[in-house]
Amino acid sequence: MALKTQPDLADIHVVGIPRGLLYHRYGPLWETFFRELGREVIVSAETDRAVVEEGTARSVDECCLASKAYLGHVASLVGRCDAVFVPCYASCDPRAGFCTKFQAAPDLVANTFRDQGVRVLSCLVENVSKPKEVRRAFAEMAARLGASQVLFKRAWKAGVRALEDARRAKAAAQEETLRLLAEYRAVAEGDPTGATERPLAILLVAHPYIAHDEYLCGTIVEALESMGTTVLFADETNRARTYKASFGFTETLPWVINRELIGSILTLQDQVDGIVLVSAFPCGPDSMTDDTIMRYIQGTPILNLMIDAQSGTAGVETRIESFVDILRYHQRGGYVHG
Amino acid sequence: MADILHLPEEARSRVAVEERRREPKLGHRKFKRDRHKRIKVAFFRYCYYDPAFKFFVEQVLDADFLTLPEATKRTTEIGEQNSTDYVCTPFKHILGDYVEALEAGADVLVQFGGPCRLGYYGELQEAILRDMGYEFQMLNFSRGIEQGALGWAKQCLKTVNPDINIPAALPKLAATANMAVKLDEARDFYLANAGFERERGAFRRVWASYRDALRAATADRDINEAFREAMDAMRAIPLDKPADPIRIGVVGEMFTAIDERSNLELDEKLMAMGVEVHRMMNLTNRFIRYNEPNLRRSAADYLTYDMGPTSTLTVVAAHRYAQEGFDGVIHAKSAGCTPEIDCMPVLQRISADAAMPILYLTYDSQTSDTGLDTRLEAFYDMLSMKKEKTK
């Protein structure tokens, strides 16, 4: 930039962050970053029925469930903050892009809430695989917020560290669970009486904004756990590794999150007993990748679940119960020798 | 129209239990090339651009072009049966085209790439067709995209013809682009005037013979000559055009807004009612002369960022039609097209600000012709009543 950026956003003191979509991927970075810049941060409350209903009322019918919930979160922040943070994550890397929803989000929010006078605070991240470009996007936003270079550098460093720490902790926890599972399995197999039941591990494959949203996916996780299975989240596996592994599966898949999820399946397939794919209806990327996964990932039973606003919890429990029954039967060698 | 809100019960869950594993990747198939056999290349059916595709295959790739007959109901059915339920509609149409092309003897299928789901069309379609038992090569422009034009050239050499004479092919590539531009230019004139011809079908005849002439073209000169002749012929057609006709702008996504099979001949239906039709979306404006940041400036009140592959063109076109005092705009998209769905709140603002009605059409493979007729007639009646009032 040739001209010095004007601090035209300096009057924003309270930043609202909707708890939806990419918040579940980059949340620690965003929160820490704004706090370090001396802003007050309000994250909207957990998703509930009212949030989804409000979002649905404000959305075009055909939007996916996650996007409707997101608009509900924005609505819940109206009047509680000076500006809502809605970043624009574009897809300049053809192998590490996002659903176009994340690119459209700032203008979508601005136009939907124009009558409420909602101010949108945003930055343009064109390519997430280039850390320098991501940094530049946030630097520009910080300058517009009136932050000095020094302050920005500190905030950025703290934000990146918070994100990395959070990710590392989750990946480490998953590895620990896998280690315990292996130990447990060895014990069960070594038990001559056969009285020790072998553990069942399930890999839950879903976009982070579905998998870690209590309202949208909580019942599924609860149902799986209440059946005595151990649930592993595909998005918590080490990202650098899963992203790389995905190229052994697909050459042209354009979405980074789907790549990481597929990479996680490939990495963990031998250590889990079943895979549960959860998609929010009608998710664009999943409409195609679920099909490819069902075609090419074989040898492990897969349950493909679709959630929409109407379905709620009804039916989900029965489907999961029958799936876990299949897995137990499978574990006893039912389909191989039966 | 499209009943996408109600999720079919069977789509809600699916279980797969498969004992054997398979190689988790769509491998590159080596194919035995017979040096003396010419390779037959097929595109999917796309709008009115088949002469340009033919020119590209014959002149640039130096291979044979396989012309597909008109699509039928069967095409759509095959595509629909073999796709997942909620993938976007063009995917289904194209899959049906590919099956028909392979049945007709195609060796190579061509697919493009793009920043939305289109970027993954090729790979998934290849996987589906292979699982259906077909053997073929796919020239998929999603591959090699990291290296840009060089990567694409490598793909052409690898999958179609290793003997392409590159220095001779480059001017032919420029001529292919010229053909697309000339097709779009003639189409613009056609859309604006064919609704007012005195003798029914006069424009259609010229348009058909123009495309025939382009199919026979082998050089830039032929293209320019065919264009001149067609434009002269169209200008000579007597018109009954009122001073202030109803003008409608068609906006929307690449495929559905233009492709007549997908939008159930939207253009012809509008022109039959006596409407002057405008459409900014075409290959010329989206690719050959596309400058997204500058285009976006003209609608800066509504857009801060590029919202998606065709979003800027959709919003800017609607905004421009509003400024130019058009009577209405039709937004045509396929069911589930995320970028265009996200444009709709923006279009709604433009419509409200300019008091210009917008008709939103969502097409899936089940959309009925009569249903569309009713909606278009109602829209037309509303626009003409509004026009009468403001006179």
Automatic annotation (TrEMBL), chain A:
Alphabetized Pfam families for the sequence:
DUF2229
Question: What name appears for this protein in its UniProt entry?
Answer: Acyl-CoA dehydratase activase-related protein
Q: Which domain of life is it from?
A: Bacteria
InterPro entries reported for this sequence: CoA_activase_DUF2229, Dehydratase_Activator_Redct
Species for this entry: Adlercreutzia faecimuris
Membrane-crossing residue ranges in chain numbering: none
- What residues does the DUF2229 domain cover? 15-235
Automatic annotation (TrEMBL), chain B:
Family annotation (InterPro entries): Dehydratase_Activator_Redct (IPR051805)
* PANTHER family the record matches: BIFUNCTIONAL PROTEIN [INCLUDES 2-HYDROXYACYL-COA DEHYDRATASE (N-TER) AND ITS ACTIVATOR DOMAIN (C_TERM), BIFUNCTIONAL PROTEIN [INCLUDES 2-HYDROXYACYL-COA DEHYDRATASE (N-TER) AND ITS ACTIVATOR DOMAIN (C_TERM)-RELATED
Protein name listed in UniProt: DUF2229 domain-containing protein
